[in-house]
Structure formats: structure tokens, C-alpha cells
Amino acid sequence: MGTAIVWFRRDLRVADHHALSAALRHHEQVLPLYIHAPQEEGAWSPGAASRWWQHHALAALDESLRRAGGSLYLRTGSSLDVLEAVVRQAGARSVYWNRLYEPHALRRDAACRKALEAMGVEVHTYDGALWRGPSQVWTAENKPYRVFTPFWRNLRAQLGDAPELPLAAPSRVPGPAIDGGERLDSLGLLAQGSWVAGLAGNWTPGEAGARAALDLFAGHALTGYDVQRDLPDRTGTSRLSPHLHFGEITPRQIRHALARAAAGSAGQNKALEGFLRELGWREFAHHVLFHFPHTADRNLDARFDRHPWREDPAALQRWQQGRTGIPLVDAGMRELWATGWMHNRVRMITASWLTKNMGQHWLHGARWFWDTLVDADLANNSLGWQWVAGCGVDAAPYFRIFNPVIQGKRYDPDGAYIRRWIPALREAPAHLVHEPWVQPGFAASCAYPQPMLDPKASRQRALDAYANSRKQTR
Ligand SMILES: Cc1cc2nc3c(=O)[nH]c(=O)nc-3n(C[C@H](O)[C@H](O)[C@H](O)COP(=O)(O)OP(=O)(O)OC[C@H]3O[C@@H](n4cnc5c(N)ncnc54)[C@H](O)[C@@H]3O)c2cc1C
User: Fold this and answer.
1) Among 104, 114, 118, 197, whose CB has the most other CB atoms within 10 angstroms?
2) Residue 326 alpha carbon to ligand 1 centre in Å
């Protein structure tokens, strides 16, 4: 009984929210609290695109809570100081939260728990962001997994055939009236300029936006997911990644809704299994970051610590701005800048071009993605970059260097994706759209840059450098 605090972090929803539901079950009053403390995330505090999303997701959460008679109490400062102060102010005897698994969050949360318990406050924490917390899946030898397929086999078996039922949204959130809260605008999360318009035109942050994206996917794209998910020109994937990152929707809600949509259709069920496997990659990424926390900043495979990465800020800038002269790479980087998102296949291709052909450290790419992706997620981003660079768990073999021309011809055969993002190539004939350099003078005639590097020669250089690094002893 009495008052409890629910500390919202990256679980910006009211439905299927374990901490909120539990607090409401056991207390008369519940104060939903959000603490803005980006300094606690160190080098990986939210980038510009994430801050934009965060602003709107917090506004949406506040609206949902208001509809249920509560509101989101916002504060800035150190999480520990704010929690201690608000506990006293509200006379709360319990604090509830859903767990996060990034290294900084684990350290911070452990310190907060210790201090609160020392004050005589009860702390209750829950898993919610994942199907299974990272310490619930182990190899037969009781070790963390380093390879995806056996990890997924184990997790999939744990999930069973029947989807778990998500928790309903509470109809009432009766909260105490407390002074001293801050206004969302004062957090300064929103960037100015035309870039923001691109984000706003493409996304609806918040729980309702997440639900709408899920419904759209269930109704239109699930059936063809197996094939369409690789075609960057189609809306063949769910685009749920930012909603998942901010906890506006849970994997449990997604599985439950999609299983209902697919019920009775063998084809849809097959597609659903493929989709669940992708969510399995997200679980795997969190598992890896939890057990190998240094992988946000350092190679998992130490043989790459002395790899001769190249430093070339001007070349890096060409990659960031989509001016490499390689159409599929440039299209992806421009999609990222214009919308805050990039198709998964193109993420692999742009990352391969940066780390292999250009020979630059994967962290340069990871940081750029971090600032510009609306779904920037430490676990998924670190795993994705180290996978492509070949220095992480379950890494792509070092000789796998994505060839952007072959990839383009296979997955964007008409060049529709390239034409959409590179106006200079909109009218390019089909035989030139993926490799405009093969016809002398053509690229210049449409004001498109020459390739910054010869794809073949740079591939060979990368193969030699990688073969050498792999010979290093660990
Ligand atoms: C270099 C690189 C960097 C990446 N950085 C991020 C990142 O910062 N944040 C992020 O969410 N994803 C990242 N990914 C993974 C993947 O590209 C995105 O999750 C996916 O494109 C999101 O689109 P979607 O929601 O339509 O995916 P769908 O195909 O609809 O998949 C559903 C969900 O499964 C999860 N998922 C799918 N593929 C992967 C994957 N390979 N790894 C982990 N989870 C996956 C995501 O949560 C996704 O929303 C990265 C991949 C690469 C190669």
C-alpha cells in the first residue's frame, strides 16, 4: 500500500509494462518518474536522432498516463540523487523499474538499488525488454553463447509454441501531486533545422505509433517477409526497431499479435518464424553485450587490436555524406541522413565498404550510425558493426567483402532504391545505375562522383590486411 515510484527509462509504454502493473497492484498511488541523465551513458549518450525520438516518445507516454489520470514526472540530474530526493518528497516506500542490460545501466542501477535499500526502500525490478534476460540462456557448459544459431535454438525452445500473453494497459494510474517537475521542452532534446522534418515525415514515436507499425506489418508485409526483407526498395520489414529500442512495444506483444494474424495460415506461420528469428538476433545482441561488455568499444576478437586501420577524415566524410561514388553505398547513407533509418542489407553493405574497402575502424561507422539512426541501440549496433568488420562474435568470415555492384544487381535489380536516393542517377540506364563508372564520362555528365576507390583493388588490399591480422596470436 502507500505510494510507489515507477522509474521509466527505455520502456516508454503503459501496456505490457511489468513494473507499472506490479506497482499498481500493490500500491494506492504510483508516481511515474523519468530522469533525464544522458551524462550517465558516457560516450554512448543518445545521439541527435535518438534525442528527437526520445522527446516525442516522452510526450506520448505523458499523454497516455494523463488519459489514465496520472502524468509523467520529469527531472534532470544524477539518477541516484533524483531517486533519493523524489522518494523522500513522495513518501514512497518502494521503487519499481524494468531492467536494462547495457554496461553503464547495469552499474548505475546496482548503485541505485544499494542506496535505496540502505534507505529502507524496497526495489522491484523486472525483465520486459527481451523475451528472456541475458542470463537466462546458457550453453550446455554453462557459458554464454558466441554463435547465433545454437543460441537461437535454445531460446526458441524456451519460448515454446504458444505465445505468452502480454499485460493489458492499466485503466487508472492514480498518482500523488508533486512539485518540482520539469517541462519536456526544457530538456533541449530537439534539434533544429530541415533534418528534423525528415524524421517527422517518416516516423510516429510513441506507443500508438508502435502499434500502428505492427498492425501495418501484420496486415501487409508479414506474408512476404522471407523474400521482401532483403529488398531495400520495398517496405518489406516491420520498421519496429526504434519502437523496440525505446520500449514502446515489447517482443512479447509483437509475437502475440503476429501469431494471431498468422493463425491458420501455413505460409504466414513460416514467415512469422523467420521474423521471430530476427528478433532472436536482437536478444543475441543483448546477450553478447551483457556477457562481453567491452564490445561496445573494443574488438571481441583481440587479434584485430593491431589491425592497420586507416585514418582519413576526408574519406570518412565522403562516406557519411553519401559521396563515395558507389551508388548503393551512397543511396544507403543518404537514406540514413534523410530518414534516420537504413535498410538492414544496406547497413551491411555500407559498413563493409567503410571497414573493408576503405579500411577504417568500425567505431567510426558505429559512431556515425549512433548519431543519425532513430533506432541507435548499443547492443544491436555494436554487434552489427563487429559482425561486418569480422572482429566480433559469429563474425562474417574475413574474406566476405560485400560487393556493392553484385549486391545491387541482386537486391535492387531495377535500381529503384538508388534512383530514389540519388537524384543524379534517376534517369541512368539500367546497365549503368549500379556502376556508372563503366561508361567513361557518364558519371560526370550527371554530376555524380567517380568512385573514391577502385572496388577490386580496395577489396584485394582488405583481403591482404585481414589475412595478416588473423595470423596474429591472441
Ligand atoms: C552495421 C549495422 C548496424 C546496426 N545497428 C543497429 C542499431 O543501432 N539498432 C538496431 O535496432 N538495429 C541495428 N542493426 C540491425 C538491423 O539492421 C535493424 O535492426 C533493422 O534494419 C531494423 O529494421 P526493421 O525494424 O524493419 O527490421 P525487421 O526485419 O522488421 O526485424 C524486426 C526486429 O528484429 C531486430 N533485428 C532485425 N535484424 C537484426 C540484427 N541484424 N541485429 C539485431 N537485431 C535485429 C530489430 O529489433 C528489428 O526491429 C544494425 C545492423 C548492422 C549491419
Assistant:
1) 104
2) 23
